[in-house]
Design brief:
- 77% of the residues lie in helices and 0% in strands.
- It has ten helices and no strands.
- The longest helix has 35 residues, at 197-231.
- The chain starts with a helix and ends in a 5-residue tail after the last helix.
Length: 282
């Protein structure tokens, strides 16, 4: 029996969707969430060191990777993290193509677009992690990236307003993260029914503090972008490391930085919990 072209296309689409929801994609997603957790815990450790006298490493993803590569066991963890980031990117890519089917119209395409963005971001994280492991990356870090992009944008027509828009975007993202944490809306993506009562309380607690801490940092990054645009000085833009150090420089700096470091560690623990309880179909 000869199959028609629509039938073949339908079978291919169904097969692709089945592959996207395969156990392997689920495992890769969980591996990626665990890798994210590891990096955030190390960032929190570096931030705490800054609060109590300083650290030679940057308190951001690249700084965390460089810290881990200081010994043999750490290099193995970095290699696993690189694989995890690649797995996370693959998971988000399948969501961008086939995910969010229960949503309609603009909402569905907005979520797919955001999944595509995260797939690209974590794909770059994977590549950059292996470059650092191979000694082929200088590890400029989040501050250098922020200054570079601010400078490039300001060189464009309406460039200062583009930088302001980036800053506002970070502030809005920070507010959303903080609100998501305070309201514990993140639990809709978790298999809460598989948790004990104590585990559920613990996961919600670290999720709350972790998301609020990330929200605060996103907001500070956004403010620095706006300051850079207002003064037309791209070097004033800062990433995660610079924003954390800015906290340490202000009044009650040590206390604030320790609190945010604890929040970032909490997000790392939440990421480990997600690796176990995340619903990867959402």
């Amino acid at each position: 029996m000869t199959l028609s072209a629509p039938s073949v296309a339908h079978d291919a689409k169904t097969g692709a969707r089945r592959a996207a929801h395969s156990p392997w994609i689920d495992r890769m997603a969980r591996f990626g969430l665990a890798a994210r957790g590891l990096v955030y815990v190390v960032i929190a450790w570096i931030a705490a060191q800054i609060a109590f006298g300083g650290s030679g490493q940057q308190a951001d993803r690249q700084g965390a990777i460089h810290t881990l590569t200081s010994n043999g066991v750490g290099k193995v963890l970095v290699a696993l993290a690189g694989v995890g980031f690649a797995g996370y990117a693959l998971w988000r890519l399948t969501q961008a193509i086939w995910g969010h089917a229960s949503d309609d119209g603009a909402k569905k395409w907005g979520k797919r677009g955001f999944s595509l963005f995260r797939a690209g971001l974590y794909g770059w994280f994977a590549v950059n992690t292996f470059l650092i492991l191979a000694g082929a990356s200088s590890g400029g870090g989040s501050d250098k990236s922020s200054r570079t992009w601010s400078s490039r944008l300001m060189g464009q027509p309406m460039g200062r307003w583009l930088v302001v828009a980036v800053g506002i975007g970070f502030i809005i993202a920070g507010a959303v993260l903080a609100w998501r944490g305070v309201t514990t809306k993140f639990d809709k993506h978790l298999k809460v029914g598989e948790m004990s009562a104590g585990m559920e309380r613990a996961v919600k607690t670290v999720g709350l503090f972790g998301n609020v801490a990330r929200g605060v940092i996103f907001g500070i990054v956004g403010v620095f972008f706006i300051v850079a645009a207002a003064t037309f000085e791209p070097h004033k833009a800062r990433g995660l490391d610079g924003s954390l150090r800015a906290l340490a420089d202000g009044g009650w700096g040590q206390v604030l930085l320790v609190a945010v470091a604890a929040g970032l560690a909490a997000f790392g623990l939440y990421s480990f919990a997600e690796a176990r309880y995340r619903r990867t179909d959402s």
